[in-house]
Request: fold
Amino acid sequence: MHLQPNVPSPRAWDTGRQSREQRLASAARFARGKLVAHQDATSLLEAVLRPGDRVCLEGDNQKQADFLARCLAQADPTVLRDLHIVQSGIVLAEHLDLFEAGIARKLDFSYSGPQGAALARALAGGTIELGAIHTYLELFSRYFVDLTPHVALTVARCADRDGNLYMGPNTEDSPVVIEATAFKQGIVIAQVNELVDKVPRVDVPGDRVDFVVEAPETFYVEPLFTRDPAQVTETQILTAMLAIRGIYEEYGVRRLNHGIGFNTAAIELLLPTYAERFGLKGRIATHFALNPHPTLIPAIETGWVQQVHSFGSEVGMDAYMRARPDIFFTGRDGSMASNRLYCQAAGLYATDLFIGSTLQIDPQGNSSTVTRDRIAGFGGAPNMGSDPHGRRHASDAWMKAGREAADGTPALPRGRKLVVQIVETFGDKLDPTFVEQLDSVQLAETLHLDLPPVMIYGDDVTHIVTEEGIANLLLCRTAYEREQAIRGVAGYTPVGRARDRRVVEDLRARKVIRRPEDLGIDPLDANKSLLAARSIKDLMRWSGNLYDPPRKFRNW
Amino acid sequence: MHLQPNVPSPRAWDTGRQSREQRLASAARFARGKLVAHQDATSLLEAVLRPGDRVCLEGDNQKQADFLARCLAQADPTVLRDLHIVQSGIVLAEHLDLFEAGIARKLDFSYSGPQGAALARALAGGTIELGAIHTYLELFSRYFVDLTPHVALTVARCADRDGNLYMGPNTEDSPVVIEATAFKQGIVIAQVNELVDKVPRVDVPGDRVDFVVEAPETFYVEPLFTRDPAQVTETQILTAMLAIRGIYEEYGVRRLNHGIGFNTAAIELLLPTYAERFGLKGRIATHFALNPHPTLIPAIETGWVQQVHSFGSEVGMDAYMRARPDIFFTGRDGSMASNRLYCQAAGLYATDLFIGSTLQIDPQGNSSTVTRDRIAGFGGAPNMGSDPHGRRHASDAWMKAGREAADGTPALPRGRKLVVQIVETFGDKLDPTFVEQLDSVQLAETLHLDLPPVMIYGDDVTHIVTEEGIANLLLCRTAYEREQAIRGVAGYTPVGRARDRRVVEDLRARKVIRRPEDLGIDPLDANKSLLAARSIKDLMRWSGNLYDPPRKFRNW
Reply:
């Protein structure tokens, strides 16, 4: 049984490197050094890619390698076929065109946003073979295990002739994508806005980059985190007041992440006004893992916010962040530095609260942003909206949540991440937010998915905030109590009307459910005068005109 | 209530940058460009650091900035005092000397290893004010939120005059430490083995590095993951056989992480021999998030292992990894590339199984490596040894574990990470591994810790493997069943003898407990002839003499 260890292995151990060298040789005629003319970009891709390759075509939450996407979509499908796309964002029409043309076949992704409906159709029609819908950290992690890209198509603001890349505030996913690809003998191609003699700072070292293409147009960035204060409703202001008094103040939450919606934008705009009344400055909401939300500007300017680390940037915020290095992470060149993986890890392990909105919640507290005909994907919310069992440091907020969750006095005390869903009982078009069954369950059956796409599972949710009040699920001791606590804040939705009134009253007496008046909040006080900024223009003024909002938000 | 947004803020927003400029000015007289002579290193540190600074003095799992540690320990404690050390490893005597001298006061760390006993004494004596004992991902995450270093003292193999750093296989924690420090206007100082004109590859771009010191001696690396096959016991071989048949084969585990102990080394050495008998090649243990364990060499050479991403390197493995780029991540220079944060993320989100050993397990399945007089710290095991609730991709192993954990047919099916503790019922010095109460509970009381240091909490553990059999905790439906399943594999320890024999027999009938014979394993077959390598020399032969073991493992 003992094998002979001294028999030399006949196997080749560098097939990846050989493949890489062949690809580079095929591409050589299109390149001068690392530089490739934009007219040759499609030919470059045809030379470098092989059928069946795993390809990451960034494709992030915000920035897009849009020129390379167009070039790839124009490739000859008899040459380039069956690619396996492994990228976080499927957000451009070109991303789906690849599948229509047969250039790509399999997809592993994380977020689809504007392409959610088209993606659902492509899945139903069989054009796309779905691997899985991931969370960000999960997909990045698989880059190092079983989804390592053969080719990464990345995007930067500028590059030098050695391939050193400057991404500035828009670093996002690129460092992790490029590390996984370059260090597994893959090929890295960058589109850049311009070639320069010297980059302002090195976000990715040139020796990880094989080709640089100066794109004819500046790359696209989606202003995904801009919320116009003028569109914040009074109901959203009320839920924000509830969250501030019933959760932020109650637990002393200092380190946190906010979701993308108007409810959390309202919280940001209430810090310098409503929260100020209760002397909470410095005691809540001081350290954020957060994109640079324009609605955070008033809280920054009034000294509420002490530090922000960001996943990515936000259109129009560059000059403001450059002028606030005490708050934001900025490079030696002065501009902001983001990193989605680092910030997701920070949001998972180093914050005490995740708060976000959702489209649907079921009576068990499971939530989803999927509807019958749209697959929005997950992004990072499920990473941050979960209790990391590998956390071992205490904080007041975390320990209090842990005590509430414990039944009696456990032998081993533990803390608990606060995971809050903040919603209005009825959403857009007056669809009820609370539903007996998530649409995603039906969708999973229709599309034969391994798992129904659930954004945050009910057992990770600690609080649900609606205009009717706060349900503290940590204090529920049975599944029935939990369900009634959720029904008890679900308002006039069918889920809410099906509540057991006696149990709900009992839960309120036990402070499991807290109504606005239980927290000293008069719903009539919830009005727009409470917002520190009531318009995009107000945000500009707060920033000393450093914030430069994108055109579509300028309605003056 | 509406604030005036157009009142200009009188506040300075660049105090961090101003402080940085003052520090750089103080240090200028010791530097030519970025280069500082090693004789001036202590003066440099005295010039650059300020009392109360958060300092990361790497201090990783393996590589050590040992020269800079000695220089800092020699600093004048009337100049440099009350530093807050925020680093993953407290493993050198100098790390503790800093606290004795009053240069450092507060500590946030992750792993102590050889200094565990001295650290416990320093905590008991009040020399160290403890923040928390973290897991790796958790500490790295806090670097971006509330433990951002003011100064990072890092270590590389070589640097050029621009400060570009080459770490080669020993990258480990450095990229994340340096990113957090440099992008928050902190100061980065690197000790290097040599200055070169051009680094073989850029692991950290020079514009993030302020000073480079050529150290008089090569930096120290601990060969932490080398296990001599000659020391693997027959009991460990038996537990390895159980794990292979009862877990790896049963669940079809392909993506995994192994702990540091002899039990998992035995599994590695049984893959090409024992596991081969069952036709498992390609069906189990193909993709690893793992340090380059020398005991993995036979499994690599026989084609079992398809890909390995590593946290760090291992002494003596450099040439072997360079020759196996299809297996390991390697840079364009040919040498291996590691990254602790990326690999921890991979171990958390992209593997289906974590298996490791521990010193103590209680009847609830909680485990600890802390003993009455030693604080070993956590390292990364609790990150990987936990079920990540933010995972959304399916695999056969994960789905099967999820089905077993589910009581009945849940509305929302979910998977589950396999978290396995593999131990012998009695450890070194015949101390029982199974104890009614973890020593760490007592220690936490003595040292007034916020939380008892628990390595992996019982509710994350899915299986416990001992020489008596496997307890599958997923199949337990009550706390009592769970406790009896654990007692039922705890052998002749007091915990094992206190079992309820009737319940344990019932659990065995339900396959919750499986004895060796239930898996077709004869304990008498567990002998050293099953090991693919029986000595360090065998490992060298397997590697074609590419593996170059450190002297202390060469007993010939």
Remarks:
- Residues 404 and 475 of chain A are 6 Å apart (CA to CA).
- Chain A has three domains: 31-221, 223-241+251-351+522-545, 353-514.
- Residues 234-251 of chain A form the longest helix (18 residues).
